[in-house]
Write a structure and sequence with these properties.
single chain; 371 residues; alpha+beta; 24% helix; 2-oxoacid_DH_actylTfrase; Dihydrolipoamide acetyltransferase component of pyruvate dehydrogenase complex; acyltransferase; EC 2.3.1.-
C-alpha cells in the first residue's frame, strides 16, 4: 500500500480536522482530484490526490484530527518509501529478532517500560492532557494508538461534563496555551484624540497606516522572534493581521505591505478579506505571515484590554470603542472623540522604551488631521 500523508498546510499548521471525504474506499481517482476537505486553525482546505490510483484505505473519519505527516489515504500498490520509523521494525527470519536486556534484577511487572506510542500519538496525548502511562495500548504488542488516547480524553470529558472543542475554537485553545507558556506579556495603554478628523469615525484604515508609521520608528515591533535560537527576524514591510470575529471563532487574515498602499487600496483589501472570512473561502496563505496584529475589538464593546501576543509575533495592538470625553484643550474644557489603545508586547524582545516610543509615534500619526 502506498501511503499519502497529511501534507504541510503552511506555517504553524501542524494538524487538521477531517471535514468531508470526497472519495471512498475502492474508488479510482485521478491526479489532482479532490480527496478530502480539512479544517485547520486558519480555514477550510481542499487536499487533492497526488497521483492517479485506487483508494485502498481512508485513515480517519469525519471529525478526526490528524497531524502533519500522518497517513491520510492508502493507495493500492507497493510503497517505494517505508517512511520514518517510529515504532518497531517488523520482518521475517532471524534478522528481524531482537533481544531486550535489563541491567539489574529481573522485573516482575512492565512498570519499568516507557509507554509504547508513536511521536504523533505522544504529541496528541500532551495536547489532550492524557497520561500515557495510565493507558493499556490496543495496538500490536501493546502499542498505544490514537484511538486509545482519544478514548481516554473523551472519558475524562464525560466525567467532567464538558464539550469537546473542535475546529477554530480548539485551535484557539491550543494557541492561547502556547502563548501563555512562551510569551512574557506587558501592556501599555494610551489614548488618541481624534478631534481633527472631522465627522468621520472609521478608524481601521487610519490605524493600519499609523501602525506602519510607528513600525518605521521602532522596527523591532515588526519582527518575528525565534525563542529557541534567541534570534529576531526583522521585516522590510508590514504584513498586518486583522482580527475578524465570526460566529465560528476568531480569524486573523493578513493585510499585506500596509505601509506602501493607499487608503483606498487598503480599504478594498480589508473588505475583501472580511468577505472571504465570512464565506469561509479565504485561502490558507492569506492567513499566514503577519508580523503584527490589530484587534479592533471596540467595534463590539470595550475600552481597554490586554490582547494576547501569538508567537512568533512580538506585539499586538487593541483598539477600543471611540468615546466623546471632556479634555483640557488650550486652557479650556472641550468634548473630543477619544480612541483608547492597548499595546501588548513580548518583553523578551521589546524593551519598555521601544514599546513606549512605538505607541507615541502611533498616537501622533492618528492625531494628525485626516486627509
Amino acid at each position: 500500500m502506498k501511503h499519502f500523508k497529511l501534507p504541510d498546510l503552511g506555517e504553524g499548521l501542524q494538524e487538521a480536522e477531517i471535514a468531508h471525504w470526497h472519495v471512498s474506499q475502492g474508488q479510482r481517482v485521478e491526479a489532482d482530484q479532490p480527496l478530502v476537505s480539512v479544517e485547520t486553525a486558519k480555514a477550510l482546505v481542499e487536499i487533492p490526490a497526488p497521483y492517479a490510483g485506487v483508494v485502498e484505505k481512508l485513515f480517519g473519519a469525519e471529525g478526526d484530527v490528524l497531524h502533519v505527516g500522518e497517513p491520510l489515504v492508502g493507495f493500492e500498490g507497493e510503497s517505494s518509501d517505508a517512511g520514518t520509523v517510529v515504532g518497531r521494525l517488523e520482518g521475517g527470519g532471524e534478522a528481524a529478532r531482537h533481544d531486550v536486556f535489563f541491567i539489574g534484577a529481573a522485573p516482575s511487572t512492565r512498570e519499568h517500560l516507557a509507554p509504547r506510542a508513536t511521536p504523533a500519538v505522544r504529541q496528541l496525548a500532551r495536547q489532550l492532557g492524557v497520561e500515557l502511562g495510565a493507558l493499556s495500548g490496543s495496538g500490536a504488542a501493546g502499542l498505544i494508538t490514537r484511538a486509545d488516547v482519544e478514548a481516554a480524553a473523551e472519558s475524562a470529558r464525560e466525567r467532567f461534563g464538558g464539550e469537546r472543542l473542535r475546529g477554530v475554537r480548539r485551535s484557539m485553545a491550543l494557541n492561547m496555551a502556547r502563548a501563555h507558556a512562551e510569551v512574557v506579556p506587558v501592556t501599555l495603554h494610551g489614548d488618541a484624540d481624534l478631534q481633527r478628523w472631522g465627522a468621520a469615525r472609521d478608524p481601521l484604515i487610519r490605524l493600519a497606516q499609523a501602525i506602519a508609521h510607528a513600525c518605521r520608528v521602532e522596527p523591532v515591533l515588526n519582527s518575528w522572534f525565534d525563542g529557541n535560537a534567541l534570534a529576531v527576524r526583522r521585516h522590510a514591510q508590514l504584513d498586518l493581521g486583522i482580527a475578524v470575529d465570526t460566529p465560528d471563532g476568531l480569524f486573523v487574515p493578513v493585510l499585506r505591505n500596509v505601509g506602501q498602499r493607499s487608503a483606498e487600496d487598503l480599504r478594498e483589501g480589508v473588505a475583501r478579506l472580511r468577505a472571504d472570512v465570512q464565506a469561509r473561502s479565504i485561502p490558507p496563505q492569506e492567513m499566514l505571515g503577519a508580523t503584527l496584529t490589530l484587534s479592533n475589538f471596540g467595534t463590539l464593546f470595550g475600552r481597554y484590554a490586554s490582547p494576547v501576543v501569538l508567537p512568533p509575533q512580538v506585539a499586538i495592538l487593541g483598539a477600543g470603542g471611540i468615546r466623546d470625553e471632556p479634555v483640557a484643550w488650550q486652557g479650556r474644557v472641550e468634548i473630543h472623540p477619544m480612541l483608547p489603545l492597548s499595546l501588548t508586547f513580548d518583553h523578551r524582545v521589546v524593551t519598555g522604551g521601544e514599546a513606549a516610543r512605538f505607541l507615541q509615534a502611533l498616537v501622533e500619526a492618528l492625531e494628525a488631521p485626516s486627509g
